[in-house]
Amino acid sequence: MMELISNTPHDAFFKQFLMHPDTTRDFLDIHLPAEIRGICDLDTLRLESSHSVEESLKEQYSDVLYSVKMQGTSGYIHVLIEHQSTADKKMAFRMMRYAIAAMHRLLKDENGPLPLVVPLLFYQGKTSPYPLSMSWLDMFALPELARRIYSEPFPLVDITVIPDDDIMQHRRIALLERLVTLISAEYTTESQLNSLLSYMVQRGHTDQPQVFYRELANRLPQEESMMTLAEW
Question: Is the CB of residue 62 less than 8 Å from the CB of residue 81?
Fold first, then answer.
């Protein structure tokens, strides 16, 4: 269990200070990274309600949330105050999770842009300097792969842009082979197989579905599966 520091009243005192915009303005002016400080209009700071920290963790953390104009748009700065003497190994992930939760809560228009939430940790533990990475991507067993997955556009299979010739090849060859493999491995129940075949008939464009079924049945080793296909 993580050890709580003895000066928790000091932490509460610090949070009370940060609940005053003038004090927070000075704090952020000093401690925000220069690139972020340069786009923030600290004269627009406004204290917001924050419900990020779970009730069970409030002895270990407290937080303050401020809204601020960032290049003319609404942004937020979420200050998380760590009350424990031992650094949380998952702190960077916790901060990312809190930031995403705040984005979800603060998103007023589902079709609008996501609100930018800047996480900032206030640390006063025993180990100096802060001993852990502040990148949540370093929490993964394969951090470089995680960076590629979560820092680049997600993979997309957009069938609407696949050429018709390729789709026809997939339907006649790849789909058939994959379907045979899955049925042969008995990964599907009879009802699932029936649903799949029904879907293919309804959504397909062939005028000879029986030819497809016969070809599929001829490739299957299971007698039961062949009987199911024969019924079609």
Answer: yes
